[in-house]
Amino acid sequence: MNNVIEVKDLIITYGDNNAVLWKTNGSIPEKSLTAIVGPNGAGKSTLVKAIIGAIKPHKGEIKINNKSIKDISNKHQLISYVPQRDSLDDNFPICCLDVVLMGRYGKLGWIKRPSKSDKDAAMNALEKFGMHMLANKQIGELSGGQKQRVLLARSFLQDSEIIILDEPFGGIDIKTEKIILDLLKELRDKGKTVLVITHDLDSLKDHFDYVWLLNIHTVAFGKPDEVLTKENLIHCYGGSVHLLQHEDN
Ligand SMILES: Nc1ncnc2c1ncn2[C@@H]1O[C@H](COP(=O)(O)OP(=O)(O)OP(=O)(O)O)[C@@H](O)[C@H]1O
Ligand SMILES: [Mg+2]
After folding, report:
1. Residue 237 predicted with pLDDT over 60
2. Residue 114 lies in domain
3. 10, 17, 45: which to mutate for ligand 1, most atoms within 8 A of CB?
4. Fewer C-beta within 10 Å: the chain N or C terminus?
5. Number of domains the chain contains
6. What tens digit of pLDDT does each residue of 94-148 get?
7. Residue 249 lies in a domain
């Protein structure tokens, strides 16, 4: 099995502060659906920002398809990324359909007008996330969860090999979370490698192939059953683990 993403001995600090990631290691197999979990401040968002090349590590290495992220020029084609908190400017006069079309063009302000097939593909992506009825609505007029769904539709349309979502279920209702999880599995089955940061530990065993348990360093990485042991959870979450236990574990 090939590893699409390799993280080796990663050390990241912000300014002069203590390291927020310390000798962190992990390997993500191709065509898999992996959850990154850990407490607030564990370094999850920092880790994925380093994986997409947005943060430069202090030490260590990140490779995508055996190539250092530093040397990859077509990152946008290779990786689609939805950040934790929405980065869309509410005041920017753009409708949902145009936001999704940005998935095709990589940036706003394309010179070429989108073709009918581009628009159809964008509408299909919106429909997958139940947002086609609001295609022409301004992005600033949407609720937080609706905005999140539009961003997910955009990453869906981007059709990149790797999809990274930072807390896609924040502000999303349970029904929509299930729809999104099914879509992510569909993408995995089509050969994509999907990485999802989530706090929903209940969803891990049923929906994810691998779990990356993180708290500054990698506490455990592997299949959900292997990783989600009481020892590992206590190691990762400390005293709050009693909140996370199930009757069967
Ligand atoms: N831009 C920044 N400048 C300084 N410190 C930062 C910055 N971004 C994050 N940090 C710090 O780095 C640590 C890890 O933050 P990060 O956002 O990666 O955590 P997280 O695991 O994603 O947490 P959460 O579950 O709350 O989203 C935290 O202590 C945070 O305060
Ligand atoms: Mg985060």
Report:
1. yes
2. 3-244
3. 45
4. N
5. 1
6. 899 998 998 877 644 555 678 888 899 999 999 999 999 999 999 889 888 888 8
7. no
